[in-house]
Automatic annotation (TrEMBL):
Residues 57-316 form the Carbohydrate kinase PfkB domain. One of its GO terms (molecular function) is kinase activity. Belongs to the carbohydrate kinase PfkB family. SUPFAM superfamilies: Ribokinase-like. This is Sugar or nucleoside kinase, ribokinase family. It comes from Aureimonas altamirensis DSM 21988.
Length: 340
């Protein structure tokens, strides 16, 4: 078994992105800025109401892995697709970025998951997700040898929606810790946190998870507070190793025990689409972390990756980031120039 720097586990989804405006969102009944789960009938209706669209592989953990491999890391992925056209697209795309992906496709069940992403002129994205084959992900899809071979096993909080995925994640976490590896999670979405708050806290407090990624709204939702400092203090107590709380243009705060250190974001004047910003921040931070860089250098990599992705449509890099001069400097442990 080859060694991997990062294994990500997530909902294997094909994204359908379309530019729109607030009026169209209202007409379709789409909640702006949220990720809403829909059934297949609603997914078909929304697709019919979209304007011209771009289809590309997505899913939070898949995006993070694509960014991570683009930054020169060695990566593997677990996620369930169906044996259908979209499943073939996802499989091709995740392998094409250079990731190890051998999950067995589902036959005779739900179709491959898709996410309709409506992007408004302010760059905000509003998502409606049909989980499809993702709900069939379970313990049998976890290859413990791959888990043990990865420095970090990272999963998305969205996986707490499909019920069988929980058992798969717990199996993966046990295998990772048995091999002396770290387990990381992203809280994914504040609405996801509201649905699974107690279970997320149990994962953290039990030591099942070592590293936590959250944006500001997710951290506030986790601790049912509107005071960020209260949330930062609490997440520091509850996280076994490191918590990273992102704050959009305000940067991020890295929390390690009682220590809290703020790091800046990079200025971006021409935001095209915020889809994948948090996913790519995690790519950069974890690339630094698995390479043994300090938290400041890892945060700088995350900020640069997030700044890069929001200047394009779609959540995965269209160029190899490790080949870009600003990223090469960061990977060498140098502080970045401003990327505008």
């Amino acid at each position: 078994m080859q060694e991997f720097d990062l294994l990500t586990i997530g909902n294997a989804i094909v994204d359908v992105l379309s530019r729109t405006d607030d009026g169209a969102l209202d007409a379709l009944g789409v909640e702006k800025g949220a990720m809403t789960l829909v059934d297949e009938a609603r997914a078909i209706a929304l697709y019919g109401g979209m304007g011209p669209a771009i289809e590309m592989s997505g899913g939070s953990a898949g995006n993070t892995l694509a960014g991570f491999v683009s930054l020169g890391g060695r990566g593997a992925y677990f996620g369930k697709v169906a044996a259908d056209t979209l499943g073939g697209i996802f499989t091709h795309d995740i392998r094409a970025v250079g990731a190890h992906y051998e999950s067995v496709p589902l036959r005779g069940g739900p179709s491959t998951a898709r996410c309709m992403i409506f992007v408004t002129p302010d760059g905000e994205r509003s998502m409606c997700t049909y989980l499809g084959a993702c709900v069939e992900f379970g313990p049998e899809d976890v290859d413990e040898a791959v888990v043990a071979a990865a420095k970090v096993c990272y999963f998305e909080g969205y996986l707490w929606d499909p019920p069988r995925a929980k058992d798969g994640i717990r199996k993966a976490a046990a295998a990772a810790h048995a091999a002396g590896r770290d387990v990381a999670m992203t809280l994914s979405d504040s609405f996801c946190v509201h649905r699974h708050r107690e279970e997320f806290l149990q994962l953290m407090r039990s030591g099942t998870v070592d590293i936590v990624f959250a944006n500001e709204e997710e951290a506030l939702a986790l601790y049912e507070t509107r005071d960020l400092q209260t949330a930062l203090d609490a997440i520091g107590r509850d996280t076994r190793k490191v918590a990273v709380v992102t704050r959009s243009e305000k940067g991020c705060v890295v929390v390690e025990g009682g220590a809290q250190t703020a790091y800046p974001a990079l200025r971006v004047a021409d935001v095209a689409d915020t889809t994948g910003a948090g996913d790519l921040f995690a790519s950069g931070f974890l690339r630094g972390y698995t390479a043994g860089l300090d938290h400041g250098s890892s945060a700088a990599l995350g900020a640069a990756a997030a700044a890069h992705i929001i200047r394009q449509m779609g959540p995965r890099p269209q160029v190899r980031l490790a080949d870009q001069p600003e990223f090469a400097a960061l990977l060498a442990g140098s502080q970045p120039a401003v990327v505008a």
